[in-house]
Amino acid sequence: MFDPVLLKSFVAVAENRSFTDAARTLELSQPTISQHIRKLEAAAGRILVMRDTRAVSLTDNGEAMLGFARAILAAEDQAVKYFTGSAMRGRLRFGSADDLALTQLPRILRDFRQLYPHINLELTVSQSGNLVRRLQAGQLDLIFVKQDAGAEGGRLVRRDRMVWLGHKSMTLEAGSPVPLIAYQAPSLGRAYAMRALEADGRTWRITCNVKEVNGALAAVRAGIGIAVFPQSLIPADLAQVPASFELPELGDVDFVLLDNPMAAREPVEALSTAILSRPVQRRA
Fold it and tell me: Which residues form the HTH lysR-type domain (predicted)?
């Protein structure tokens, strides 16, 4: 019903609040812009633009039309890119540490796939160390992982603090070995825990070996022991253990993006930008 050409002229007038500036923006003559606005008003059956010698303003119907016009033009642009093949194409092998999948990352990936439907996104979820090895072997193009705070390499997404995680009913007698829920070695969280406990002269016992984050959280919820976890990702039903446990500080951890320099740059940069531009925090 509404010609996109007319809508483009209307949006230009609305944004510039001037027929003259709109004509300059679209590289059209001012009479042409005026004609487009009259045709759009005739198609809508409403007055959209108020004109006087000093200013141009939108009517209430004009404000409504502006929202519809922007949506229609955006949808047209996406459709053109999709069907003309001008949209970005390629294959992107992306890896994420499993606990980072507890963040807004799934929503970011869903939006990315909708925006770039011609990119074949292949997702691998694993431990940070395993993902780094696969990246170095050329099996992945981009990874989102945890590493020691301040370590060289990669683009920093955010810095977090590693903490001791337990169920709210968990207790620990003074001087008793720390019941540790840990990923199988090699594991960054396991290394954080043992490094801190050894430096503090504390003893521990492994009460549960896990391979992925859901196993670790299930064991914590069952009260089997204490785990090491990024502070910002703690689920609502669990908590950082109290100071009365007298456990040592674990230090900071970085969430970073690492990429394969041999990978196609366009898809890597597009997804990196999507992750860096959105808050990476625990899903509500």
Answer: 2-59
Given a contact cutoff of 8 angstroms between Cβ atoms, the answer to whether 241 and 134 are in contact is no
> Where along the chain do its domains lie?
4-84, 90-158+254-276, 161-251
CATH topology of domain 161-251: D-Maltodextrin-Binding Protein; domain 2 (3.40.190)
Q: Quickly count: other Cβ atoms within 10 Å of residue 153's Cβ.
A: 8
**Dihedral sign of CA atoms 36, 65, 23, 19 in order:** positive
Contact of 188 with 126, CB cutoff 8 Å: no
* Residue 243 one-letter amino acid: A
Listed residue (135, 193, 52) closest to 145, CA to CA? 135
10-residue stretch averages of pLDDT, the chain, 284 residues long: 89 87 89 91 90 81 88 80 64 93 86 86 92 95 93 88 92 88 87 92 93 92 94 90 92 94 90 81 54
SS3 content of the chain, % helix, strand, coil (to 5): 45, 25, 30
d(CA 26, CA 6): 12
In degrees, to the nearest 5, what angle opens at C-alpha 66 toward C-alphas 60 and 67? 100
Report the CATH architecture of 4-84: Orthogonal Bundle (1.10)
How many CB atoms lie under 10 A from the CB of residue 206?
16
Which H/E stretch holds residue 73?
Answer: helix 60-84
